[in-house]
Design brief:
Elements: E1 32-43, E2 51-61, E3 78-83, H1 85-99, H2 113-116, H3 119-137, H4 146-153, H5 163-181, H6 187-196, H7 201-212, H8 215-219
Antiparallel strand pairs: 1-2, 2-3
GO molecular function: phosphatidylinositol binding
InterPro entries: PX_dom (IPR001683), PX_dom_sf (IPR036871)
Protein name: PX domain-containing protein
């Protein structure tokens, strides 16, 4: 597979997947800030002249309980990711499926693919898209959202995992979440998990159900 010409973009080291070992504080999206700086044209790969347009997102993670005025923005963890126009609508679609509609965090009506390839058009809508992301980050129900986390960190194209990738991530994420929650407030998480694996439902549902009988569930007090 040919590499894309996106070497100028930088991302956090642990941003590659849902099973990141980053701390819970780092994954608290309510402490993150996002700014859409500009629209840019990138090449499909370093050997091709084919180009596509993206919005460049500047993401910053603010430290919890740290109001030290001596720490400027440049010293706080920050990175850049590139997202295509259609990526935002995929994010909105999946978040709506999992969490319902956020009426104060909606994207404008979707335009044609031809329009979305125009840099001037992307510049004209970047404020609306930034507003959308900022409102998502302010939602308590999304503070640990894997979808939103991946959207703001994945160095590659934003896409939803399917099949075996989903199954692998399920078995890595669920035990970690159970240890953290200690058996409490798990219903919303499990509902979101089942929705997350919907593309691989036939294959994954049986595997997820097995987790209910796993000794780990009994150890955290889910069985009375």
């Amino acid at each position: 597979m040919e590499e894309k010409d996106d070497s100028h973009l930088k991302c956090p080291e642990d941003s590659a997947s849902i099973c990141s070992n980053s701390s819970l504080d780092e994954r608290d999206l309510s402490t993150w800030r996002v700014h859409i700086d500009h629209a840019e044209e990138l090449r499909e790969n370093i050997h091709s002249n084919l180009k596509y347009c993206v919005l460049i997102l500047e993401v910053q993670r603010c430290e919890l309980n740290n109001d030290n005025p001596l720490i400027n923005n440049e010293e706080k963890p920050h990175w850049i990711v590139a997202r295509r126009y259609q990526d935002f609508y995929l994010l909105e679609q999946k978040l709506t499926e999992f969490h319902g509609i956020f009426y104060d965090a909606r994207l404008p009506a979707r335009r044609s693919a031809t329009t979305a390839r125009n840099l001037d058009f992307l510049e004209s809508i970047k404020a609306d898209f930034e507003h959308f992301l900022q409102h998502l980050l302010s939602k308590p129900t999304l503070r640990n959202s894997e979808l939103l986390y991946n959207f703001l960190t994945q160095p590659d194209d934003f896409a939803l995992p399917t099949g075996e990738i989903i199954l692998t991530k399920v078995f890595k994420v669920v035990p970690r979440r159970l240890r953290f929650e200690k058996g409490q407030s798990l219903e919303p998480f499990l509902i979101s998990l089942l929705n997350y694996i919907e593309p691989a439902k036939a294959k994954a549902t049986g595997c997820v159900r097995k987790l209910y009988n796993n000794s780990l569930f009994r150890n955290v007090g889910l069985d009375n």
